[in-house]
Amino acid sequence: MTQSAVRHTRVLAIDDSPDFLSTLQSFFETTHDFKLIATAGSGYEAVPLIQELHPDLVLMDLQMVGMNGLEATLEVRRRFPGVPVVIITAHELPGLQQVCHENGAHDCVKKSRLYQDLPEVLAKFLISRQS
After folding, report:
1. Is the model's pLDDT at 39 over the cut of 90?
2. Hey, where are the domains in the chain?
3. Quick one: residue 72, left, alpha or beta (phi over 0 = left, psi -120 to 50 = alpha)?
């Protein structure tokens, strides 16, 4: 397969922190298999953007004003069951991983461990897409 024929996994990021969205932009500039196609600042923006852009994966902040990440994930999973969501959070609450899974999230990553844990989550995502 030629370099031009490589298909990147298209990622949409939803987070109300412009600084963290900038961090994600920098992170995805270092990856070869993934491309950050758009960002948004609220859970309310997730569904229209998914409908318009058809991402392969959504990264969703847990705590946002208005519609939080779990509520937005439930709506995304209801409307677009084939689009996996990974929750990104600054919180370290007991049982959070389980709550995220129960609300339809594919996985959960702590913001403080983004560069350590997100590559592993993304690698698992690629493997699951190939099977």
Report:
1. yes
2. 3-121
3. alpha
